[in-house]
Amino acid sequence: MVMMHSRMWRRGAWGAGLVALVAAASAPSGQDPFYNAEGDAIGRIVDAATHHGQSWQILSHLTESIGPRLSGSAGAEAAVRWTAERLRADGFDVRLEPVLVPHWVRGEETAEIAGANPQRLLVTALGGSVPTPDDGVTGEIVVADGLAALSAMDPARVKGRIVLFNQAMAAESAFQGYSKVVDQRTKGASEAARRGAVASIVRSVGTLAARLVHTGSVTYDEGVARIPAAAIASEDADLLAGLAARGASPTVHLRLGCHTLPDVPSHNVVADLRGRERPDEVVLIGAHLDSWDLGRGAHDDGTGVAMVMDALRTLKSIGLVPRRTIRAVLFMNEENGLRGGKAYAEAHASELARHVAAIETDSGGFPFVGFTSNVDEPGLSMLRSLASALAPIGAAQIGPNGGGADTSPMKPAGVPQISFDVDRAHYFDWHHTPADTLDKVDPAALARDTAAMAAMAYLLAERADTLPRPVPSPSPAPR
Ligand SMILES: [Zn+2]
């Protein structure tokens, strides 16, 4: 199934038409002389990124030569070193900015339905989970369809048992569906522990029933017992829930060997294409370098890293030096701590008033559809005119409420937040699972994404005026 998908993509519905698009690259947009002047630049960006781009080569190295990049791991450090070297080789002045990151290590993990006829379950520890004792933990399953269902339950039913959080994600709703159910993964363990549970198991969050396990962070509340927290495949959650509904009272034996080591020093990787006229004004383009450990961090967020690095390289390769600085930031530790995003905002606090926009790409390398932003209507309308100049790349939609996790610590300083938006229909098929691998990415879509990122960054950095800054607001919780 997955292979078929990937072959289908490579053959190319998404990649088709690139040549025609490039040919139409000088399409002017509206009456604004800025866009007429910039039409040629956009055409050159599209040509360079799609015909001479290196985004696929970067992604291949990151996901296959380096592999998974969980914060604190050797893979994460290799990714810091390699991306910095590569950006230097491309002629950029690269800084490694210190970030102290958590170091959680996955151990052996098993789960089975205990009894005379044991059945293996596909299980994975949630990131940050405490281990079970060496001989595991055993408990009868009590099923709760989400946090609210647990709250409504008599705590006596929970005490001494293992809670299975079994609220399914609505397949069609992508990020909305994800954010509706993911709280049972992040907060479920503490809520279960408050009621005396011995462990917490969550139905894997995702949209593809391929017996995949989905990891992600668990957050323990202060002052509440820390119980082991794991995810099982959605099919295995259905099995347990079905048995429980039929009165079979399934008992699960869970063993997790994960553990947390002391924090380790790591880095954000920062490189500038220095502006020709206002170099201290910055358009930031960012993605996260770390990944979960089960897969190889292809769509999350290797494609983002490849886009950001190759967007910067592409602009330089065709000699486009905009008025302001375009800064590439590869953030460390988005997945389980957001330490890189916080460290960047702290280290650059005095410059944030001159950060004119921060674009984050962390929704996969799927076909580009547009941008969302947290700026108010006058700003959105300016983004719409900028997007119209991207016609050679595609009809870019502009929407409200944008902003990514790593750039969110810059929100209190009023830095306009922009999310790079793609077709997300398949993102949660593989997100945080062992299947987030290179074969799921279409090279032509990634090249076009890179062109869109480079073009939007260039336009924002070149235009004489800047986006009106939004009213500063506190950072949202990371996802
Ligand atoms: Zn991500």
Structure description:
It is a single chain. This protein is an alpha/beta fold and 479 residues long. The chain is built from 15 helices and 16 strands. It has an eight-stranded mixed sheet, sandwiched between helices. The chain has an eight-stranded mixed sheet with strand order 3-2-9-5-6-7-8-4, with helices on both faces. Strand 5, helix 6 (147-151) and strand 6 (162-165) form a beta-alpha-beta unit. Helix 3 (33-51) packs antiparallel against helix 15, helix 4 packs across helix 11 and helix 11 (298-317) packs across helix 15. The radius of gyration is 23 Å and the shape is elongated. The relative contact order is 0.18. The model is unreliable at 1-29 (pLDDT under 50). Residues 288, 300-301, 334, 362 line the site of zinc ion.
